[in-house]
Every structure is written in structure tokens, then in C-alpha cells.
Amino acid sequence: MKKLLLAGLALCMMNLSLLGADISPADKKLVDAVWDGKLKDVKDAIKAGANVNVKWNVGKMPILATAALSRHKNNKKIVRELLNAGANVNATDVEGISVIAYANSLGKSKKILKMLEEASEKSKLNDELFLAVHNNDVNTVETALHAGADANVRNEVGLTILMYAIYKANATIVKLLLDAGADKQGSAASNLAQYHGRCDIIQMLK
Q1: In the structure, what pLDDT confidence band is assigned to residue 204 with cuts at 50, 70 and 90?
Q2: Residue 7 has pLDDT above 90, yes or no
Q3: Among residues 71, 80, 101, 102, which one has the fewest Cβ atoms lying within 10 Å of its Cβ?
Q4: Are residues 126 and 97 part of one domain?
């Protein structure tokens, strides 16, 4: 494992000219910003639509791992920015090595490790929340929210948990999500509730 980690780190340190041909200009700006430790440029790249889960160089290292391994003074803030923007803390490189495994085995700061581990736990809770909504499991939804699951989490295609609950036409779960701070999402949510003929949910969304 240690050899694989060192190999992955070596790949990370390779020149940015090794970026894959399939990487978009916006993603390259994000990689450059993380590589250079420029927090403002990271924020700008994210606002411009860069993929916070982009994998770069020949080792396909997740950009979050690159930020975690950085020695720039802004690296903690950049890691937080990527996580807040939806970076997958459980992402792996081409060898299957995770972001946390890199950070843990290469002696990164305890603050970064704690940040990543907390994000990993929250990711699991969010997965449980989506599964519970899918199964119309009210008790598990309530438990996950109380444990810290994000009431505004989105899935891999950008669908919010609230919209999914409305799609499932479960008024009880919709109320739980709203009480936990879910954004009402304006007309999109109301229109979906109307499509399903759920006047009770429409009233909740007003």
C-alpha cells in the first residue's frame, strides 16, 4: 500500500502538461488553482462550473486529494471549499487509493484528516437519507436528519433530496425535510407536487 501511495504522490507531482485530453478548460483552471494554492481562483473556477470531482494526471488523482496533499498555506481552506461544493471525499485514483488514505498515510495535518473523516461520515448519512426516501422509510429519514444528514443534499445528477421526496409523493418526508431546513426551491417543487396531485405538499411549500 505504501508503494502505491508513493507512486500516486509521484504522479501528482508530475507536470500539468500530463493532464488528460478529456479535461475541460474550466476543470483545468480548477486544477491549476488547487496546484498553485490560490483560494480565490478555486472559488472562481467552481462558480464557472468546474467539476469538483475532476480526476487529473495519468494516475487519475481526485482534485480533492491534490488539495489535501498540498503544502500551500491555503490548503485547508481549499479542501473545505471543494467539500462545500460537493467534492466526493470517498473518490479514489486509478489504483483505488482514496483521498483519506492519501492524507492519512502521508502524514497530513490532523485538521485536514478530521475534516475529511467528518465529510466521509456525512456522505454516508446522505446516502442513507436518499435510500430512505427511495424506500419511503420515514423513521430512517428522521434518524438520518437528526444524525446530521444534509436536508439540501443533491444526488449525482443534481436532484435535491426534497425534489426526490416530492417525486415520491411522501408528504410526511417532505415535512421532515422542510423542518430540517430544506430549501423550498420555488416553482419547480410546487409544479412537481401539482403534477402528482398533492395539494397537501403544495401547501407546505408556500
Answers
A1: very high
A2: no
A3: 71
A4: no
Return the residue matching grid coordinates 500500500. 1
Cell 483560494 appears where? 39
Name the residue among 93, 30, 25 with its Cα closest to residue 65. 93
φ and ψ of 55, to 5 deg: -115, 130
Give the CA distances from residue 190 to residues 23, 76, 187, 202, in Å, rounded to whole numbers and listed in that order: 37, 39, 5, 6
Q: Identify residue 113 by its one-letter amino acid code.
A: L
Q: Determine the 3-state secondary structure of 128 from DSSP.
A: helix
Q: Give the integer Cα–Cα distance in Å for 30 and 44.
A: 8
Domain CATH number, residue 38:
1.25.40.20
Same domain, 135 and 189: yes
Instruction: Specify whether the CB–CB gap between 172 and 194 falls below 8 A.
Output: no
Residues 46, 76, 113, CA angle at the centre, nearest 5°?
115
Whether residue 115 lies inside any domain: the answer is no
CA distances from 127 to 19, 22, 49, 148, 154 (A): 31, 29, 24, 12, 10
121 in Cβ contact with 149 (< 8 Å): no
Task: For residue 142, give the C-alpha cell.
Answer: 428522521
Region 114-131: mean pLDDT is: 90
